[in-house]
Specification:
This protein has 691 residues and is α/β, with parallel strands linked by helices. Helices cover 29% and strands 18% of the residues. The two termini are 48 Å apart.
C-alpha cells in the first residue's frame, strides 16, 4: 500500500493519503483514503497505526457517503425567509463576508462582548477547532465561551484528584485481571478499547459493566450493575467502605502517595453497602461482591467514561471513582488504575494556537455554552451576534425550547458554518459551507490513547466549501486585523500546535502518527501532577472554593422517585450509529437506527398501557417530545432512555429529547446535567400507526 504524504504534483491513477478521524470519540483513528482521479474511492483504518489496527467503526466507515452526500452545503447562502424556515438564497463569498465583517465591526464599536462564538467538538482537530477562530475572537474582544457541554465535570474532578486528565495507557487494559467499565458503552463509543478488554477476557479477566442501561457492552460483560442515574458516588464510597473493613488496602501506597486518607476513610465508613444499595437501587450483595473482586484482584483497571458525570453530583462521582486505585495500590501495575481521558498528557501549546495575548488585557464576560438558552433570552446582558461552527446547539443544547426561542430572535445576527443544513443552520442569517476532514489540514491529540495524528487533505473542497481557518483569516483581513499571526497557513498551525521538541514532527509527516514518550506505570511511585504530587483525596483547592474537599454523594437535582408528577428518570445516551448529532443525515446509518425511540421497561410500560411501536408523549415542566416506544430489556424499572441525538426536524413533532433536559449545572465544572431529568410518559391514543 502506498502511504506517501499528499503532494501538489499530479498523482498516479490511484494514490493514498493519511488522515485522522475528526469526531468526538476517544479512539481518534488513523485513516487512509484512496483517491482516484480526484475522487475518494475507499476509506479505511490505517493498519500501520497500532491503536486503529485497520479497523473503523460503522459510522466512520461511511465517511465517504457522508462526504459525497447530496445535502452537502457547497455555496454561501443568505436567509430569505422567516428564522427557522430554512429558506436561503445563494450569495458570493465576498458578499457574505463583507456583510458579516461590516455587521461585526458595528457591534465591536458599541460593545464587542455582544458577539459570542459557539463551537465545540464537531471536529476535535486543533487547527480547524481552536486556532484561527480563537485568535479572531480574542482580537475582536468578543465574549469568551465556556465549553462545558461534554466533559468538564469529570475533567475538572480528575484535575482536583489526580492533577489532570491523566491515567493508565489504554493498551495495558489487555493485561488486567478485572476491568470495571463504568458509564461507558464501549462497543458503541470506544471500539478500540473494547478490543483490549476482549483480549483481557480471553486471558481470564472478569469484566463488569456499571451503567443504568443494559447496553450492548453490558451484554458482553460477565456482570451488569444497573444502578440508578446519579448514584455512582454512593457506589464508589461503598466500595471504599468494604476495602477498609476487609483491609484490602495498600497501606504503603496510602501513606506515601496520597493526601487526606484519614478524612476519606471517615467519609467512606459512613457508606456501608446496605445504604448504598438503597440509594443505587441495586442488591447489597452485588456491591459486596464487586468490592471483594476489586480488593483482591490484581491488576484491576477502571475504564470510566463521561456519561456518569452528566448529573448534579457528576464531579464528586468522578472524584470518588478516581480515588479507588490509590486505596488498593492499583497504580503500581501498568495494567492497573483508571482511565477517563488521556488528553492531559499531550503537550499542546494552546497559547501559540489561540493567542490569548490578543485580548491585550481585556477580560470579556464568559458565556456557558450549556446555558445558551437562558443567555440568548437575557435582555439585561444581550447577545447581538452569534457565530456557530463545529456545533449544532439547537439540537444538542439542553432545554431546547428556550434555545429555539433564542435563535428565533429577529434582532440576533447569526452566522453558521456547516457541512449540512442542520437544525441550527435553519436559523442562520448567513450559512457558510464548511470543508470536511477529507478536504483540509489538521492535527489531533486523543482522549483515549497517547498518539498524535496528522490529517492531510485528500480531496479538493467540494463546490465553494472553505475551511474554518480560511473564513476567520478572511474576516480578520476585512476587519483590519493586521497582526502577522492572521497570515499563518494551516500547515504552520499544525507545526505550532505542540510544544517545541515535544513530538517528532518528521515522523508524524512520514507515517501520519507519532507516539508520546511516557512511562508505562506513571503513578507507581506517586508523581501525580497535583500541587502535592500525590493523589489528593482531600483537595485544598476545592475547599478554598467553598466546596467539600472530599468526594461525597450528591443527590440529583431531580432524584429518581422524588416526584409523583414525573416518576420516571430519563437518560439520553447516544444512538449506536450516530455521534452526538453527526451522521444523523447519512441514509445508511439512519436506516439502521430507524427513528427516534424511547426505551421503557415492561413494568413501566404495562402500568401506562404502552406497547412497543406505539407513539408516546414524554413530558415534564420544561416541555414535551413525541416518539415511538420500545418496551425493552435494556431499561431497568423507573428509568427510560431517550436515544439521541436526532435532529429535531426528523422527529415526529419537530423536537428531540433535549426539549426535556434542564439547564441546571453540575457540582464541579459548570457542566450540563442531561442525565438528571425526571419525566412522565403516556401513550398517544390513536397514534399507534402514525408515521
Amino acid at each position: 500500500m502506498d502511504l506517501a504524504p499528499a503532494t501538489s504534483e499530479t498523482p498516479s491513477p490511484a494514490h493514498t493519503v493519511r488522515g485522522a478521524c475528526p469526531h468526538d470519540c476517544p479512539d481518534t483513528c488513523a485513516l487512509v483514503t484512496t483517491v482516484k482521479e480526484g475522487v475518494a474511492v475507499k476509506l479505511q483504518g490505517n493498519p500501520e497505526h497500532p491503536h486503529t489496527a485497520g479497523v473503523l467503526c460503522t459510522k466512520v466507515s461511511r465517511y465517504i457517503e457522508r462526504n459525497e452526500h447530496a445535502g452537502r452545503l457547497v455555496q454561501p447562502m443568505r436567509r430569505n425567509g422567516p428564522k427557522g424556515s430554512g429558506r436561503f438564497e445563494p450569495v458570493s463569498w465576498d458578499e457574505a463576508l463583507d456583510d458579516i465583517a461590516a455587521r461585526l465591526t458595528v457591534l465591536k464599536g458599541i460593545n464587542p462582548e455582544t458577539i459570542v462564538p459557539y463551537s465545540y467538538a464537531g471536529t476535535m482537530g486543533l487547527v480547524q477547532g481552536e486556532s484561527m477562530d480563537r485568535r479572531f475572537f480574542h482580537k475582536l474582544g468578543a465574549s469568551l465561551l465556556d465549553r462545558t457541554i461534554c466533559s468538564t465535570a469529570g475533567g475538572e474532578a480528575f484535575g482536583f484528584t489526580l492533577g489532570g486528565k491523566v491515567g493508565m495507557r489504554v493498551e495495558f487494559f489487555s493485561e488486567a485481571k478485572l476491568i470495571l467499565i463504568w458509564g461507558s458503552n464501549s462497543i458503541a463509543s470506544n471500539l478500540h478499547f473494547w478490543r483490549h478488554a476482549q483480549a483481557a477476557k480471553r486471558a481470564g479477566a472478569r469484566l463488569v459493566c456499571i451503567d443504568p442501561r443494559k447496553t450492548e457492552t453490558a451484554d458482553k460483560c460477565d456482570e451488569h450493575i444497573a444502578l440508578l442515574p446519579g448514584t455512582d458516588a454512593a457506589l464508589a464510597l461503598a466500595l471504599m467502605h468494604e476495602l477498609i473493613v476487609n483491609d484490602w488496602l495498600d497501606h504503603d501506597y496510602l501513606a506515601n502517595y496520597t493526601l487526606g486518607w484519614e478524612q476519606l476513610r471517615e467519609r467512606a465508613l459512613q457508606w456501608p453497602p446496605a445504604r448504598a444499595a438503597q440509594v443505587c437501587g441495586v442488591p447489597e450483595a452485588q456491591i459486596v461482591e464487586l468490592a471483594r473482586a476489586y480488593g483482591t484482584t490484581k491488576p484491576a483497571a477502571i475504564r470510566l467514561n463521561y456519561g456518569m458525570q452528566r448529573v448534579r453530583g457528576g464531579g464528586n462521582a468522578a472524584r470518588a471513582v478516581a480515588c479507588l486505585p490509590a486505596l488498593t495500590g492499583a497504580w503500581r501495575h501498568r495494567a492497573g488504575g483508571v482511565l477517563l481521558s488521556s488528553s492531559g498528557q499531550f503537550p499542546i501549546d494552546r497559547a501559540a494556537l489561540q493567542r490569548p495575548d490578543l485580548l491585550a488585557g481585556r477580560t470579556p464576560r464568559t458565556i456557558n455554552m450549556s446555558t445558551i438558552g437562558d443567555a440568548l433570552l437575557d435582555e439585561a446582558n444581550p447577545i447581538k451576534a452569534l457565530v456557530v461552527y463545529n456545533s449544532n446547539p439547537v439540537a444538542v443544547a439542553p432545554e431546547s425550547g428556550k434555545v429555539v426561542a433564542g435563535f428565533e430572535r429577529e434582532d440576533l445576527f447569526t452566522v453558521v458554518m456547516e457541512q449540512f443544513q442542520t437544525d441550527t443552520a435553519d436559523y442562520a442569517d448567513y450559512l457558510l459551507p464548511a470543508t470536511t476532514q477529507l478536504e483540509h489540514w489538521d492535527i489531533h491529540f486523543s482522549y483515549g490513547h497517547t498518539d498524535v495524528l496528522l490529517n492531510q487533505p485528500a480531496l479538493a473542497p467540494r463546490g465553494q466549501a472553505r475551511s474554518n481557518t480560511w473564513v476567520f483569516r478572511e474576516l480578520a483581513r476585512r476587519m483590519g486585523f493586521d497582526e502577522p499571526c492572521f497570515s499563518d497557513d494551516d500547515e504552520a498551525l499544525c507545526r505550532a500546535a505542540f510544544a517545541a521538541g515535544s513530538i517528532d514532527y518528521e515522523q508524524l509527516q512520514a507515517q501520519g502518527f507519532t507516539s508520546l514518550r511516557l512511562p508505562e506505570a506513571p503513578f507507581a511511585q506517586g508523581n501525580f501532577p497535583t500541587p502535592s504530587g500525590k493523589c489528593e483525596f482531600y483537595s485544598e483547592r476545592l475547599a478554598a472554593m467553598g466546596q467539600d474537599g472530599l468526594p461525597d454523594h450528591l443527590p440529583n437535582h431531580e432524584p429518581a422517585g422524588s416526584s409523583a408528577a414525573y416518576p420516571l428518570a430519563m437518560i439520553s445516551p447516544p444512538a449506536r450509529n450516530f455521534l452526538n448529532s453527526s451522521f444523523v443525515n447519512v441514509a445508511s446509518l439512519r436506516a439502521i437506527e430507524g427513528e427516534p425511540l424511547l426505551e421503557i421497561h415492561e413494568a413501566d410500560a404495562a402500568e401506562r398501557g404502552i406497547q412497543s411501536g406505539q407513539v408516546v408523549r414524554i413530558f415534564n415542566q420544561r416541555g414535551e417530545h413525541r416518539c415511538r416506544a420500545e418496551v425493552s430489556r435494556r431499561a431497568r424499572p423507573g428509568v427510560v432512555h431517550g436515544l439521541g441525538i436526532w435532529w429535531r426536524k426528523l422527529g415526529l413533532d419537530g423536537s428531540n429529547v433535549n426539549q426535556l433536559t434542564s439547564q441546571r449545572l453540575t457540582d464541579i465544572g459548570r457542566g450540563p446535567t442531561f442525565y438528571d431529568c425526571l419525566v412522565q410518559v403516556e401513550p398517544v391514543l390513536g397514534a399507534a400507526d402514525q408515521a
